[in-house]
Amino acid sequence: MLRLEASKQPGVPRSPLPEGYSEPTATRHRIGQGTFRIVVTDAYHRQCAVTAERALPVLGAAYIRPFSEVEGHDVRNGLLLRSDLHRLFDAGYVTVTPELKVEVSRRLRADFDDGETYMKYHGEAVRTPTRLEWRPNPHFLRWHNENRFQG
Predict the structure, then answer these.
(1) Whole-prediction pTM value?
(2) What is the DSSP letter of 82?
(3) Among residues 118, 36, 120, which one has the least CA distance to residue 70?
C-alpha cells in the first residue's frame, strides 16, 4: 500500500506534514502578464533569444527590469528565454549587455562548481525582434547589468 494511502487508514500514525490546502490568502495578480508573454513570444518569433530553442513549453518571457519596479508590460523590457536561462537571468548569473551580447557570470562556476553548459554563450549576440521598436531597451539592460548581474 502506498505510504499516503496508509496514512489515511485508522490506526496508522499520521505524517507530521500538513495535508490538503492552506487557508485562502489574498494575492495581487499582474494584470496583463499573459498578454506580455504572448507579445514577447511573438516578437522573438517563438525562439529563445540566446539558444534559438523553439519548444514553446520551455520558453518564457523574462522581465529585464522586474515588473514590481516598472509596473508596466513593455515588450522592450522583455526577453524570450529558455526556462533554465530565464532562472539564471533572474538570479543574476546571466545578463544581456546594452550591446546585446550575452554575459555569463564566473560566479556560476564558483557557486555551483559548474557552468560549462552556459559559458559557451558568453560573448554571443542575442537574437532580437525584427521590429526595431520591440528590441530590448538599453536602459533596462543597463539596469540589469548594474543591479542584478553578479559579474
Answers:
(1) 0.81
(2) E
(3) 36
